[in-house]
TrEMBL record:
Organism this protein belongs to: Streptomonospora nanhaiensis
Spans through the membrane: none
Family matches, as SUPFAM superfamilies: Duplicated hybrid motif (SSF51261)
Protein name: Peptidase M23
Signal peptide feature range: 1-41
The entry's keywords: Signal
């Protein structure tokens, strides 16, 4: 089958601007942060210059015309992007200059705006060809006076802003706001999530538990082979972060990521069921990183820790697809199922569902 792809008529309002030394100094000063904890929904001053930094890209796709007006000479989407970038930098405990030195860019994709609120995707790319991995969040924002308050996915602010807005369809808005609110979900060892391929089929675990980026938590595992198709490990609302990277937000306090996909289905918030086709194993690097062969990079995120900002959680000790995961060295470890035994990287794993 040939799944639909991102519509060819999507108009992208991407801009990269080069700044003078004075503006860059302002940008660097505004970008300094002191904590890697969850971003708070504090309004960002409108005179920051984050959105126009050389390593920031802002995309509006027609949503710009629905954003509140900005001061003369300032694009409305840039005012919003300033606030989103500030929250992203705080969440990662870094600054734009530090990211630039590591060949990382920040992409702000404003996908919807309505009645003074906005919704979209924020990505910090990874250097192309490196072992590092990108980061991404959904974001919700609320215009307060002349400023924006922003919440990143996984924070109370995200859920509060989204649920109080007119963004998205009502059912989607309520489900996503509740499922990502750390006050409303609880952790569980048995998480009710399968594996990223069809229930009743097998794929080879080419890489055991490892980090989505360098180091812990070991939240990710790689699969290849079988029929090559990536499918939703549980139902939920599916968001294409870029062309080749999908996140499905489930109704149980978790979400799952699927990266490197080709023959990709663009999903801007679709309500999908378990086993929904997402794409095929591939080598897509829409947000950077590297691959050594076509595969599905599958990762688990949780929303139960108010200080985690919806971040990646360890697979160790958790059961997915009927198998309990155990970590060792990065890409090592194994999975175990009572009555079946242990499978190490390079072995075939059957998806028993959940």
């Amino acid at each position: 089958m040939t799944p639909p792809t991102s519509p060819a008529f999507r108009v992208r309002l991407s801009r990269t601007r080069f700044l003078g030394a004075a503006t860059l100094s302002l940008t660097a000063a505004a970008a300094l942060v002191v904590s890697a904890g969850a971003a708070q929904a504090q309004p960002a001053p409108v005179d920051t210059a984050l959105a126009t930094a050389p390593n920031v890209e802002v995309t509006a796709d027609g949503a710009a015309e629905s954003l509140p007006g900005a001061a003369p000479g300032t694009a409305a989407e840039d005012v919003l992007a300033d606030a989103v970038v500030a929250d992203v930098l705080e969440a990662r405990g870094t600054g734009l200059s530090a990211l630039d030195a590591r060949d990382r860019d920040v992409r702000i994709d404003i996908r919807e705006a309505s009645d003074g609120s906005a919704f979209g995707v924020a990505i910090v790319t990874a250097p192309m060809g490196s072992e590092e991995s990108p980061y991404a969040w959904l974001f919700a924002a609320d215009h307060e006076g002349s400023e924006w308050a922003v919440g990143l996915e996984g924070t109370e602010e995200f859920s509060e802003i989204l649920s109080a807005s007119t963004l998205l369809a009502e059912e989607e808005r309520e489900a996503v706001a509740a499922s990502t609110n750390p006050d409303e979900v609880s952790a569980s060892t048995y998480i009710g999530v399968g594996l990223p391929f069809s229930i009743g089929s097998s794929m080879v675990m080419t890489g055991g538990p490892h980090g989505f980026s360098s180091g812990h938590p070991y939240s990710s595992v790689d699969f290849a082979g079988g029929n090559g198709q990536a499918r939703a490990a549980r139902g939920g609302y599916a968001y294409s972060l870029c062309t080749g990277w999908t996140r499905v937000i489930h109704d149980n306090g978790y979400s799952t990521d699927y990266y490197h996909l080709e023959d990709y289905q663009w999903l801007p918030g679709n309500n999908v069921g378990v086993g929904h086709y997402l794409g095929r194993q591939g080598n897509s690097l829409c947000a950077g990183g590297s691959t050594t062969g076509a595969h599905i990079h599958f990762a688990l995120r949780g929303y139960t820790d108010p200080n985690a900002a919806g971040w990646y959680v360890p697979l160790h000790g958790r059961t997915l697809g009927g198998w309990t995961f155990y970590e060792g060295a990065a890409y090592g470890g194994y999975v175990y199922r009572s009555g079946v035994g242990t499978v190490y990287p390079g072995g075939s794993v059957y998806n028993y569902g959940f």
